[in-house]
Amino acid sequence: MSDTHHTPSLASARAPLLDQRAKTVLWLLAMVMLWGLSWPATQVALLSVPPVWLAALRFGSAGICLFIFVALRGELRLPPKADWPIVISIGFLQMMAFTGMGMIAMTTTETSHSVLLAYTTPLWSVVMAFLLFRQAPTHAQFGALAVGLVGVGLIVSPLEMDWSQPGVLRGALLLIGGAVSWSVVILHVRRHRWQSSPLQLAPWQMLLATVPLASIAFLTEGAPVGINFTPELIQLLVFIGPIATSACFVISAEQGRRITPFAMANFTLGVPLVGITASVILLGNQLSPVFLTGLALVTLGMGLAARAARGR
Fold this sequence. Notes:
EamA_dom; transmembrane; cell membrane; transmembrane helix
């Protein structure tokens, strides 16, 4: 009789845990889809909005949404002194530099190339960990880096990119530069002792990115008076900013803490795959055998890098 009583109680205890895991997976899959789809959406928006202004509009609108969201939760306050280094790091390097350089690059680079090169961050994290902290790569990390960089070399080579076209090589270098900037932030995040939650700091980071982006845009691209805010463009801007930036940041902050960093890294690998697939379906990008080979090598390299980091 005791067995018949214990079995239902164990099952009932596991059910909420399984439900929570399922919800977390569904939320993170939604995040990956939205982040991936934001790349072709950005490519279309760039036909109407200059790149640096688009970056400023993205973080300006997303920042407003997050200020309201965090305030409604009763958690809006100035970051403590101990958190300002990470606010500056994420605001300037990840948001301003990564996004600004990426959007400039996308004016001359196909979406499929852009999203893949931008998400080579795990590879550069291995390099920057050595350069900044003298953290020598393990054999597994070195192998992952070698595999991934061969893929990057294929994608940026004349076999895949037409270097004679204006801005093509510059765009590839900007995307890699953005990925390197983001990798530095990842290393900083791992070492930072958080006083506030990432979600509490996010609005301030976006504000810190928006102000210089808008200033640079005004100086280099002029006042945004020539932008024609059609209903279609407004829909794209709402998707790129409040939805694919602020909403996804909330999902990442709230649900990402429920899984391991290794699992989160594997989820993030889906973003370029979704972005590339969407660019083929929605924008008509064509994937050559060279690109597909480079994609396979880069994805394998990033997966191996994530696994090696987990082991370390």
